[in-house]
């Protein structure tokens, strides 16, 4: 991601920057206070967004009444992301003519470069559909805890694809993560929705969550490699990504729900809550972008851990979630593993920074 203190150009290409002598001026002091405020605000927002998303997905996919089609929600989320990224590129360029020329030059005149993100676009569409499937078959807390396995898949793909070396402490954290998730799964904790709905299948939910983790890990590292090998800003890359993910999501609508959409309509089951859910998902990636810029890995891990705790507590009151001792132990191990994994930076070439735009790709849900 772009770093502060005049290093945006280098950081946007994924390179670390050499710390400069800090100018102790009033302007610099104000800049520090602003940065601290943005860090705190973005982390609080990320925590709330993560917790709300887990709970909202569970409610939206299991509530009574007309049920919207998940494939159409994924497509609408991609359209919203595309619109937001276009707006951010406009603010980045400062004028309509520069905005138009930039998009034409990077997206239209350079189709081969745009096609580089085709694999990522398709994987994210499949991943987002899997997230809806897992939310419909697993309670919010179990789903959220299981989804943290993306830390393991991302690490494995980073080692394989980018030749990145992990510290022994980080491998230990990944082991703790797996043990914690296994404990959560063997407890078979669920909520009242799961008990009263025979159509829900826990095995399908777990498989969908694990599949989503694998796709997230591969797509995140692949997208990071693309970002590090070009001078194009992350927002332009996300525009390119949306240009391909929208058609992919449309194809998924036809493959998965064509007959239902034909008979009932594309927006069947839509109401204010579904619109809120689409906006919540679309805004998640942008929130992560801000966190990556102003916070570090430990604070991001703290936000994720707090979201798990918040969603677990709220699930008890909202969905009648039953917490067992094994579940608590497993969740604690998962939270602990997140902190341990982010305590030390990944061992790699010193010119490559640790906080990269990968996080945006990794949470593009």
Task: Give a structural overview.
The protein is an all-alpha fold and 365 residues long. The protein has 16 helices and no strands.
Secondary structure layout:
Blueprint: H1 8-11, H2 26-62, H3 70-93, H4 96-108, H5 111-115, H6 118-137, H7 140-147, H8 150-162, H9 168-187, H10 192-196, H11 202-228, H12 234-264, H13 272-294, H14 297-319, H15 325-341, H16 358-362
Helix pairs in contact: 2-6, 2-7, 2-13, 2-14, 3-4, 3-6, 3-12, 3-13, 6-11, 6-12, 7-14, 8-11, 9-15, 14-15
Shape: globular
N- to C-terminal separation? 19 Å
Low-confidence stretches: 1-24, 346-365
**Oligomeric grouping of the chains:** single chain
Overall average pLDDT: 80
Helix count equals 16
Which class best fits the helix and strand makeup? mainly alpha
Strand residue content = under 5%
Number of strands: 0
Largest sheet: none
Percent helix among the residues? over 70%
- Helix-strand topology string: HHHHHHHHHHHHHHHH
Q: Could you tell me the radius of gyration in angstroms?
A: 21 Å
């Amino acid at each position: 991601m772009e770093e502060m203190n005049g290093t945006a150009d280098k950081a946007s290409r994924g390179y670390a920057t050499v710390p400069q002598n800090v100018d102790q001026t009033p302007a610099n002091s104000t800049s520090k206070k602003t940065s601290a405020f943005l860090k705190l605000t973005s982390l609080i927002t990320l925590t709330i967004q993560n917790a709300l998303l887990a709970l909202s997905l569970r409610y939206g996919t299991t509530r009574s009444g007309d049920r919207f089609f998940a494939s159409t929600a994924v497509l609408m989320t991609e359209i919203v992301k595309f619109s937001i990224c276009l707006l951010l590129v406009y603010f980045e360029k400062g004028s309509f003519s520069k905005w138009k020329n930039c998009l034409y030059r990077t997206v239209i005149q350079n189709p081969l470069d745009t096609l580089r993100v085709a694999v990522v676009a398709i994987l994210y569409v499949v991943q987002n559909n899997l997230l809806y499937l897992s939310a419909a078959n697993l309670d919010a807390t179990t789903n959220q805890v299981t989804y943290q396995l993306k830390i393991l898949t991302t690490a494995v793909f980073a080692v394989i694809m980018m030749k990145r070396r992990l510290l022994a402490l980080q491998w230990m954290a990944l082991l703790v993560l797996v043990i914690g998730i296994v404990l959560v799964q063997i407890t078979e904790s669920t909520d009242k929705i799961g008990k009263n709905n025979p159509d829900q299948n826990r095995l399908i939910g777990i498989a969908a969550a694990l599949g989503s983790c694998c796709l997230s890990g591969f797509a995140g590292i692949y997208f990071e490699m693309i970002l590090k090998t070009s001078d194009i800003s992350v927002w332009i890359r996300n525009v390119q990504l949306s240009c391909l993910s929208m058609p992919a999501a449309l194809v998924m609508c036809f493959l998965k729900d064509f007959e239902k959409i034909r008979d009932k309509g594309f927006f069947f089951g839509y109401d204010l809550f579904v619109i809120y859910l689409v906006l919540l998902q679309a805004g998640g990636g942008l929130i992560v972008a801000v966190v990556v810029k102003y916070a570090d890995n430990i604070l991001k891990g703290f936000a994720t851990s707090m979201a798990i705790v918040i969603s677990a507590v709220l699930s008890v009151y909202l969905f009648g979630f039953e917490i067992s001792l094994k579940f608590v132990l497993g969740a604690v191990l998962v939270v602990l593993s997140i902190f341990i994994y982010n305590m030390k930076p990944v061992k790699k070439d010193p010119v490559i920074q640790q906080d990269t735009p990968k996080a945006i790709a990794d949470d593009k849900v």
